[in-house]
TrEMBL record:
<dbReference type="GO" id="GO:0005739">
    <property type="term" value="C:mitochondrion"/>
</dbReference>
<keyword id="KW-0560">Oxidoreductase</keyword>
<dbReference type="InterPro" id="IPR051935">
    <property type="entry name" value="HSDL2"/>
</dbReference>
<keyword id="KW-0576">Peroxisome</keyword>
<dbReference type="InterPro" id="IPR036291">
    <property type="entry name" value="NAD(P)-bd_dom_sf"/>
</dbReference>
<feature type="domain" description="SCP2">
    <location>
        <begin position="315"/>
        <end position="404"/>
    </location>
</feature>
<dbReference type="InterPro" id="IPR002347">
    <property type="entry name" value="SDR_fam"/>
</dbReference>
<dbReference type="Pfam" id="PF00106">
    <property type="entry name" value="adh_short"/>
</dbReference>
<dbReference type="InterPro" id="IPR003033">
    <property type="entry name" value="SCP2_sterol-bd_dom"/>
</dbReference>
<keyword id="KW-0496">Mitochondrion</keyword>
<dbReference type="GO" id="GO:0016491">
    <property type="term" value="F:oxidoreductase activity"/>
</dbReference>
<dbReference type="GO" id="GO:0005777">
    <property type="term" value="C:peroxisome"/>
</dbReference>
<comment type="similarity">
    <text>Belongs to the short-chain dehydrogenases/reductases (SDR) family.</text>
</comment>
<dbReference type="Pfam" id="PF02036">
    <property type="entry name" value="SCP2"/>
</dbReference>
<protein>
    <recommendedName>
        <fullName>Hydroxysteroid dehydrogenase-like protein 2</fullName>
    </recommendedName>
</protein>
<dbReference type="InterPro" id="IPR036527">
    <property type="entry name" value="SCP2_sterol-bd_dom_sf"/>
</dbReference>
<keyword id="KW-0521">NADP</keyword>
Amino acid sequence: NFRKLAGCTLFITGASRGIGKAIALKAAKDGANIVIAAKTAEPHPTLPGTIYTAAEEIEAAGGKALPCIVNVREEEQIISAVEKAVKTFGGIDILVNNASAISLTGTLETATKKVNLMMDVNVRGTYLTSKACLPHLRKSKNPHILNLSPPMNLNPIWFKNHCAYTISKYGMSMCVLGMAEEFRGEVAVNALWPKTAIHTAAMDMLGGAGIEKQCRKTDILADAAYCILTKPKSFTGNFLIDEVLLREEGVKDFDVYAIAPGHPLIPDFFLDVEIDTTAVKQKGYALKEEKTESAPAKPSGPVAETFRAIEGAMTEEKVRSTQGVFQFELSGDGGGTWYIDLKNKGGSTGFGKPPGTADVVMSMSSADFVKMFTGKLKPTMAFMTGKLRIKGNMALAMKLEKLLTQLNSKL
């Protein structure tokens, strides 16, 4: 890669682990200077790495590291780290706003302190770090700001189940939109987002054990970020998806980025490509759902038998650990609208609409439904091949495969 970032100084928030550290290590191989602006100075009980262990890895890779204790909620810590970076390396060429907080919860379930955390870290932290770095970036020959944030997709599906998180991530994207125009010709400002789930400590917490097989490595974002940060500053105001960008750059083998090559991958939030939106009509961004007519009588046969078996296998523990209502729109023999309630009381199944609002709506053929619930068809495979269409809370839908593993022996 001709060491394109040799001698450049990168200020990366949240660089002690995960995606931030991967971007840092990629730049370090060129001989770049990396300011590790993160808050983990002492080993965390459950999360790997500190700013100091990250610094050791960066220097071992060929870069120079400056570990700085920075909680982006604290403006004074941001300003202090920026001043230290300029004093140590003579300036700042690149800012990567990677630090982020997540809570995939509904409006009534999201505690105020969680709302504050997401808004403070994602929106305010990104804005203030950009503000502190911009006077120094403007002095660089090829300055860049890169935010790890999604394209702004106003499909209401992405607001419905985790409104606060979506607002906070789109706030980061709005910083790109505004600052790219404000500093056009001076500083490039772009956004980068993964097409699929990326294996990080956060994903382990969200998805549980075994989720890594459905994820890609952080390397794919590091390579995509490198492509962006080595472009001229005229390349600005773009919302880029890692795989799309790398394909345009000539990358053909994406198995190298997979944790488990050949295994189906989970699509990331805010991208409609893999989501069934046939029941969503957008006009002025209002949600209008097509009504599904229920069959007049409860069907019998394999589908009905499967639902009876599911209800028989329910336990209070499964209800407590899942906390979701799944609605199924099935076509073919024994089809119609069915539900599995794993949120209320001891759980229940039934024909027709669920008693409350469904968290996840799944559409598929009745034959594939039976296969999925008897272990002959994995949900991720059904989803990736188009046999299963999902609308609603994707994080909750991800729990389905784990649940099926527990149920299959009883079905």
